[in-house]
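== Folding task for one protein ==

=== Format: two labelled lines per protein ===

==== Paired sequence and structure tokens ====
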Amino acid sequence: MPLRITSTLSGEKEDFVAPHGEVRIYVCGMTPKFHPHVGHARVFVAADVLRRYLEYRGFAVRHVQNFTDVDDKIIDRATREGVSAAEVAERYSRSYFEVMDRLNVARAHAYPTVTASMPAILDYVQALIERGYGYVVDGDVYFEVARFEPYGQLSGRTEEGAMVGVRKELEPGKRDPRDFALWKRAKPGEPAWPSPWGEGRPGWHIECSAMAHETLGDQIDIHGGGRDLIFPHHENELAQSEAYTEVRPFVRYWAHAGLVTTGSEKMAHSLENFTTVQDILDQFEPTALRLFLLGTHYRSSILFARKGLEDAEKGLSRLRGALDGYSPQIALDEIPDYARQARAAFELAMNDDFNTPAALGALFDLVPEINRRRDAGAELQELAAGQATLVELAAVLGLTLEAGAFERAGGDAAPFIELLLATRQRLREAKQWALADEIRNGLHELGIVVEDRPTGALWRREHRSMSINP
């Protein structure tokens, strides 16, 4: 089955091809105005899985993700914290990398920023003016939407339906309510850069067009981001990019991730209804959060609730339980049918628009097959082949299953837990049951659940209660 991807532009699943020899991916990154929340994690984990599977399929990938490091909300945060806008952007960009590294989100090949891309942005705005798409009004520069005939093709918004409630007189000098800023003249006390039109800073949409063009060229294969960016951000980015390059389409496949919601609202900094990724990772391990996010198709919305994380943690324990006794050093001369069938089911799911829930289903179906063979005394190689397949396919989803591989804020206690369990085992062998139970009970009080099995004790972390919407 060919790899198929749903493009927002067509609204249909399309066969994926990469005519440039490498897959060029651009993902709209964070505006680093505060710590990343779960909604951010959803977008970047989805993009990470998309990239990982393309690489698994043998594609070369060039992945670029920007930081919008100057913005009204960054300026507002700087005022509240009593620091510069640059310090705010730097602080929360670091926060992004700290939590995304823990979530096993692979680093992009490039992270352009608005402030470092200013010469390219200025050249881009000037070129749009020269091509007749931009006009200057008292230091502001606007994109003239009426000049770009296909405007609305991505979002489906018409001239009449898209601009309800917008009045021309709110922004004097605009020729059309739909026209959007390419350059904004400076306001007192705000960061500003020199330009041919006076001191100012870029409009939101032009930044991504310029950064994408500078790093990936005239055409992108896949453009990722949250569904809330379709209009106006991506609609405007598409218009000005195609006006600038005259290459159509600007993006061959638009891949938009669904929103994380809390009740009926999307999770957002602006709504103050967010839970930061760090808050989750203080009490759940990163792989459990990642598994929770992948349990829903990337284009669908996720209701964020405690139970989902609890279920993900239990599911992760089941996956890891199938690796009891596994060693990657075991030579695999032949792959048995049950492991090949699991891989085929996994690939069938991922080829269908990166269907991670179905792909996870293939992994969970493999678990009882492994356990059944272990219980029946299967040969070591037959068992190891299934376990190796489980580990490999989980890694394509960015899930780390090997024992002791996961970590937690404040340092990894796994070696100490293993030492305690080894001591407990010796006590059990000496029939010192009371002391052995003390170790088990003490670990449970610290949030460690011990499961005794014929091949030895396994352990996992138990979550503690936290303030997440029920």
Q: What stands out?
A: The chain is about 45% helix and 15% strand. Residues 356-375 form the longest helix (20 residues). The chain has three domains: 4-266, 318-407, 413-470. The first strand starts at residue 4 and ends at 7.
